[in-house]
Amino acid sequence: MPDDFAYVREYYDVPACLGRRVEVYGKPGVIAADRGHHIGVNFDSDKPGVIANCHPTSEVKYLGMGSVRKLTRSQQRYLRFLDVGDCFDDFHHFLKYCKD
User: Fold this and answer.
1) Residue 5 has pLDDT above 60, yes or no
2) pLDDT recorded at residue 100
3) pTM summary value
4) Which end of the chain is more exposed for a tag (fewer CB within 10 A), N or C?
5) Domains in the chain, ordered, with CATH?
6) How far is 45 from 29, CA to CA, in rounded Å?
7) Nearest-angstrom CA–CA distance, 89 and 84
8) Per-residue b or e along 44-65, where b marks 16 or more CB atoms closer than 10 Å to that residue's CB
9) What is the superkingdom listed in this entry's lineage (predicted)?
10) CA 86 and chain centroid, separation
11) 74, β-bridge pairs
């Protein structure tokens, strides 16, 4: 498995890594995904799993370590549906079949 954030860290010389707290244009958040030339940030004001692409040097302050928030139960359920949704007529049928 390639080193996540290796390109961003080496090319832009920033301490990007999964779970690092950042402030982008004054909005606090946490790095939640490696997006190649960008960092994927889950802002504190957004729901878990909502990830915005941000340029690693454009008004970004790198702070201490934090943790990536877990997806909500409904978000997890919808991701499961996306994986196996072809087996069902629609989301409603999926919900009937897979009761939590």
Assistant:
1) yes
2) 56
3) 0.79
4) N
5) 6-65 (2.30.30), 71-100 (no CATH)
6) 8
7) 11
8) eeeeebebbebebeeebeeeee
9) Bacteria
10) 25
11) none
